[in-house]
Amino acid sequence: MPIFLQFARKILSSKDFITNIYRKKLQVLEGRQWEKVDFNEVLKEVSTMTKYDPTKIYIDGANPSFIRSLKLELNEHPEYEKLIEFYNHTKCDWTLNMRVLPVSFAKENRAMLGNCKMILESGLIAIDPHFDKLIVSLRTAVANEMKLDKLQTSFSDLLDSLILALNEYQFKNG
Fold it and tell me: Which of 34, 113, 133, 134 has the lowest tally of Cβ within 10 angstroms?
């Protein structure tokens, strides 16, 4: 379950990455992948990471019960679907009014993957060689019609987390 916390100049993912912008280049500073993830362990880990006071926490929207628990843990309203509906109805940007932001890979996958591809191809990201699993994931990544093929991609959760992290940085050509 990719989770990504954003700081003013640093980004931390409870599952995978700490990144930083240095000399106009994104850097992956730390990475990890848990083989067996316990719901409560992840909740505790993310809660612990909030001591860095992240401005935003991006999370795969596929697990609403975890999102609600995380929102409760962080003193945010757990009924986020109703709030998103309300903000959309009033034509307000709901992402400005929430700290924990669920991201729908089903809806945004193609755009996020395209953005990640453009950032990687433009050389705007630096990945230290000791992040070997992430590098393997990038090298084995297979996409069909701009949708990641998880069966053919090694460590696809790592790549999903990177894609989610890079979504914060929208690539603009030119």
Answer: 34
**Token digits for 170?**
């929208």
Report the helix count and the strand count for the chain, using DSSP H and E: 6, 9
Helix (H) or strand (E) holding 136: helix 132-140
User: What is the distance between the alpha carbons of residues 85 and 94, in angstroms, rounded to a whole number?
Assistant: 9
- Give the sheet arrangement for strand 10-12, strand by strand: 100-103, 56-60, 3-6, 10-12, 17-22, 25-31, 125-127
Range of the domain at 48: 3-62+104-166
Residue 89 lies in a domain: no
Q: How many domains does the chain have?
A: 1
Does residue 93 belong to any structural domain of this protein? Answer: no
Q: Per the confidence metrics, is the pTM higher than 0.85?
A: no
Q: Going by DSSP bridges, is the β-strand pair 125-127/25-31 parallel, antiparallel, or unpaired?
A: parallel
